[in-house]
Design goal:
Helix content is 18%, strand content 34%. The chain is globular. It is of the alpha+beta class. α2 runs parallel beside α3 and α3 crosses α4. The strands form three sheets. Strands 4-3-6-1-14-11-15 form a seven-stranded antiparallel beta sheet, with no helix packed on it. Strands 7, 8, 9, 10, 16, 17 and 18 form a seven-stranded mixed beta sheet that branches. The longest helix has 16 residues. It is built from five helices and 18 strands.
């Protein structure tokens, strides 16, 4: 049930206004749908990550979730968390930052002791208890080894696919100028939309699930690439990523798509394998 949204307008810095939840829907009454955390990641003009997040369930602090949040950045990451691993703390709330990158994940990985052993000294990057932050640290380890983000993500996900029990590992990762997204395996969808600079209308996106809503007048004339857990408007240009496919948006908005994991997990998980908390967090996709 976690929701991902990421956008790049690089090299242009654009203003965008985010509402992380729609009060008329998500804060209504369905208790399991009450998010366990909301977060927004952007970059300052100097390229520093700016993370704003709230670990409490949305009904405990509705103002944080529903207030309009206008930010200017080249890349944006928004995440609505339904906890599967780790308590409701700031350190467990998405998005995360390491090495001036911002990361968010939707899915479940198990056998965290094995993952911790694989991380070695990179475990020191992990501040919380989640599988998501550990996956980010594994990617950071391989990026450092490869010297390339795309290659590092591929290496990390192939190790995960071969070694860990996996329900899903959908992810988005951004720097101040680039964006990456992966869908793996076929458990949950992930969609991409390429908007040209001649769109002729401002960006106005709202998820059908009543979570992320974003508006940008600047994008009436500036191009952008958007990644989301579901199509967020009626534009026919939304296309799904294939299982194992990595999307890379370069600093000039050039888009490339490459399959980085060409096989299903060696140890696949189903919803029936999950504990009740994790299963609830993944329901509704």
């Amino acid at each position: 049930m976690c929701r991902l949204f990421a956008m790049s307008s690089a090299p242009a810095r654009v203003r965008a206004t985010f509402w992380l939840l729609d009060a008329s829907d998500s804060l209504a009454a369905q208790s399991r749908r009450e998010p366990d955390g909301t977060g927004l990641g952007t970059f300052t003009e100097s390229g520093e990550p700016l993370i704003e997040k709230q670990p409490l369930a949305a009904y405990q602090d509705p103002a944080f979730a529903t207030e309009a949040r206008e930010r200017k950045s080249t890349t944006f990451v928004a995440h609505i968390r339904y906890a599967s691993t780790g308590g409701l703390t700031d350190t467990n709330t998405h998005p995360f930052t390491q090495r001036d990158r911002i990361f968010a994940h939707n899915g479940v990985l198990e056998d965290l002791p094995k993952l911790d052993a694989e991380l070695g000294p990179y475990l020191s990057l992990v501040r919380g208890d989640t599988d998501s932050e550990r996956l980010f640290a594994l990617i950071t380890k391989h990026v450092d080894a490869c010297g390339d983000v795309t290659a590092g993500i591929g290496e990390a996900l192939r190790w995960v696919a071969d070694e860990l029990p996996v329900l899903a590992a959908n992810l988005v990762l951004t720097t101040a100028t680039e964006m990456w997204a992966v869908r793996y395996p076929d458990t949950h969808q992930l969609f991409v939309l390429e908007r040209g600079g001649d769109a002729g209308r401002h960006l106005e996106h709202a998820s059908a699930a009543g979570t992320v809503r974003v508006r940008s007048g600047d994008l009436a004339t500036a191009p952008a690439v958007v990644v989301a857990s579901e199509p967020m408007d009626e534009n026919p240009g939304w296309s799904p990523l294939a299982p194992g496919e990595l999307l890379h948006v370069a600093a000039d908005l050039t888009v490339s798509r490459t399959v980085v994991v060409d096989h299903p997990p060696a140890h696949p998980l189903t919803m029936a394998d999950l504990n009740p908390t994790a299963a609830a967090s993944q329901a509704g996709h």
